[in-house]
Request: fold
Amino acid sequence: MIRALAMIFATFAAAIPGLAQKSPDNKELVTSFTLDNGLQVIVVEDHRAPVLQHMIWYRIGSADEPRGASGVAHFLEHLLFKATDTLEAGELSATVAANGGRDNAFTSYDYTAYFQRVAADRLDLMMRMEADRMVNIRLTEENITTERDVILEERNTRVENSARALFSEQKNAIQFFNHRYGVPIIGWRHEIEALDLDDALSFYRTYYAPNNAILVVSGDVTPEEVRVLAQKHYGVIPANPDLPERVRTKEPPQTAARRMQFKDPRVAQEYVSRSYLAPERNSGDQETAAALYLLAEILGGGTTSYLAEQMQFDTQVAVYTGAFYSGQSLDQTTFSVIVVPAEGVSLGQVEAAMDKGLADFIDRGVDPDQLERIKMQLRASQIYARDNVDGIANRYGRALSSGLTIRDVQDWPDILQAVTGEQIIAAAREVLRVETSVTGWLMQDAGIEAGVSQ
Amino acid sequence: MKHLIILMITLVFAGPVMGEVKIKEVISPGGLTAWLVEDHSIPFTALELRFRGGTSLDAPGKRGSVYLMTALLEEGAGELDARAYARALEGLAASFGFDSNSDSVSVSARFLSENRAAAVGLLRDTLHNPRFDQSAIDRVRGQVISGLRSDAKDPDQIAAATFRRLAFGDHPYGTDGAGTIETISGLSRDDIIAAKHVVFSREHLYIGAVGDITAQELGALIDDLLGDLPATGATIPGPATVGLTGGVTVVDFDTPQSVALFGHAGIDQDDPDFFAAYVLNQVLGGGSFESRLMDEVREKRGLTYSVYSYLSPRDLAATYRGGVSSANGKIAETIAVISNEWAKVAQGGITQAEMNAAKTYLTGAYPLRFDGNARIAGIMVAMQMQDLPIDYIATRNARVKAVTLADVNRVASELLQPEGLRFVVVGQPEGLENVTD
Reply:
C-alpha cells in the first residue's frame, strides 16, 4: 500500500508571473510518494505528446564498490541486459524496440540508472520487465567473458584513445587521497580484467532492491496510473532488510598543493586544468553550493564571464577559459578552472594569468549587473525546462540518489536567487585555496604525426 | 497599419498517432512561407531558420569562410560589440544558435514571450548588421585553428577526414567545412562579408516555429526579421560523385584502439526504394542493441562497445556508411565479421521476422521524435527542405508499413556492395594491410 501520496501542487498554474518579479517554478508538475517496501516514486507530468520516460535509479555507484573491484557497478549495469528468470538475454531491449521505444542505462559515482522512452500506453510492460531484472537476473560465465571484453573496448573508446580522458583520470586520482571519487567510474583496466561472476552477483544481491531505488516516470501519465502499476510490479518485491548503510571513506584535510604534467604524443592543444576540493549540495544546507554554482557561472560560464573578459578579450592570453562546479554529489566534490593558452603563450604564462585573474576577482567583488543577468537566465530556465520534462525527471533522480530530498530540489531555484555577491566572494575565498588543489598541465610529447601509409 | 495583413493558413491534422503535432502553413504578408505548430502551454517560442547551401558555398580558395562567418554571427551586431552583444542576449534570457554544415547554415533561436520583440530585434540586427570586427575575427579564428589542431590528432576526426577525401575528392564534400589552418589564416574581413552575402537569401530560406505565437504574429515577425534579405542566392554546387572503392585504407596512428569508418554509395531520400533501404538498415546496423552488426560484433564476440550503420542522404550525394572501434589486435576480426554480414544480407536478405520487428520499431519510435518545441521546429524545416508534403507526418508510418520483404531483399541485393565496401582504419591494426582494388 501507499504510505504517502503527496500532491505537491494541486493545480496547474494558469499563468507565469513576470520573470522580472518572481522565479517561476515547476513544482506543480511533480508528484511523489513511497511504496511500503521503500521504493520512492516521482511523477513529472506533461500531456502534450503521448510519450513517457520510465526510469529506475539505484542509490549505488562506482564510489560504493569494494576495494579492488573498480568498475563492477558499471559492469553489472551491462549485465542487467542479459537473461532473467523470464527474459532471455537481450529480450528486454528487443521488446522495448519492438514497441517502438529506446532503452539504455548509465552509471556514475553515486548512482546507476536504467531507462526506457516509449509510447505512453506501454508503461505496464516496461515496469514488468524492469521490476523483473531488479531481482531475477541469471548470469552465465559466458556472459561474463564476452561482456567484460565489451567494457574493456568501452574503456578503450572513452579513455585509452583520448589523451584528455587519460589526463583527467590521473588528475582525479591525485585530487582524492582517500575517497573513491578518485577511482574512475569505468574502473582501472587491470581491475576490470579481473572482474568475475561473484563480484557482479554479490554487488547485485546487496544493492538492487526496492528500498535502494527511486522510480521516476515523466510524460503523458497521471500519478494515479503510476501508483497502481508501481504497486503491481514493484510493490510485490520485498525490501532488502540487510541493505548496508551508505558509508564512504572521508577525505582527510588536504594541506599540500599538488602539481602534475601529463605528456602524450596525441595532444594537439595544451592546456592547464586546476581542480579544488569543494563542498557539495547537502540536504537542508545548499547555500554554499548555490554560491559556488554562481561562482562557476561568473568566473567561467561563457563569453561574458570574468576569466573570458580578462584572458580572452583584454590580455588575449587564452583561446578558451571555463569554470565548472559539480555540486550534485553525495560527498565532497570539486570546483575546477580550465585555461587554454593562445598561440605563443606558454602553460606557465597562462597559469600565472589565471592565478592573477582569480586573485583580482576576489579583490574586486562581483559585478551586480552580471549577477542579475545570470539570475534572470536561471529564472527563464525554469520556463524552458517545462519543454523537456524528462530533464526535470532526471534532475530528481540524480538528486535523490545523491543524498538530496524532493524539498531540496524544489528549494534550489529560490536559494540560487537569494545568493548575494558577498556570499559568492566568501565561497571563492573558502574554496579557491591552493593547498586543496591539483594543477595539471596537459602537454604535447615529441612524437607522431598521422599519415596514410598507402 | 500600412499593410493589409493577409494570412493564408492551411491547417493539417496529422492523424490520430500524431494528434499533438498540428502543422499550419503560414504565408506572411510579405510572401514568406513558414510552418508553425502553435502551442501556448509554455510562454516561449522556438524558431528555426535554415539556409540551403552551407559550407559547400565557400568560394574557391576560401575554404572555411562560411564556417567562420557563421561562428562570428554571435560576436556583435549593430551598436553592440561582442561583449555587449553577449550581455544583451543574457539579459533577455534568449538563446541564438548559429551552425553550419555541408548542406545548410542554421539559426536556432529560443525566446520568451514576455520580451519577444526585443529578442527578435537583436536577431534581426545579427542577420542584417553583424559587425565582423577584426578583433573578433582574429579571436574566433584562433579558436577554430585550435580545434583543427586537435582534430589532426584525434583518431575519430582523422578517420572522418580520410573517409571524406576518399569518398568525394575535390568536391566540397571532400574536405572539412571548417577549412584548413592555411585557408582560414588567409581569410580577410571582406571574405567573411562575402560569405554572408552568399549564404543569406530568401531563395534558400526555410522557416519553422513552435510555441507561444499565433500565425498572425509569426507572419509579422518573419517579415520584419527576414523580409529585407536578397530574393535570390548563390548557385549551389552540382552533385558529388561517390568515389569509394572496395578495400582497406590504414592510417598509422599510435593509439591502442583502432577507429574504423566504412561505406559505399547510398540512396537518395526521394528514391522510391528509400523506405525499403531504411527498413533494411534498421536490421543490418541501425538498431541500438538489436541489429545484425551489434549482435555479431558485440553481443556474440565482445569485439567492440559500439558498431552502427546508417543511410546518409545529403543534398549533393548519398552514401551508406557505418563505424566501429576495436583494440588494435581485434580490428581485423571485426572488419571480417562486418564484411561477412554485409555479404550475407546482400545475398540472403533479411527474414520476415526481422523486417516485422524493424517496422514495429520504426513506426512506434516515430512519435517519440516530437518531444520539444525546438526539436519539432527542426523537423519541420527538414521536411520543407526535402520537399515533403505538410501532411507527411500523418502518412509517414503508412509508407514504412507498405514496404514488403521482397522490396527489402531486392534493395539489399542492389544497394549493398560487399565488394565495394571501403574501410578506413586509424590506429595500429594488427593483421590488416592497405588494400586497393
Notes: The longest strand of chain B covers residues 318-327. Chain B touches chain A through 81 residues (CB under 8 Å). Residues 1-19 of chain B have pLDDT under 50 and may be disordered.
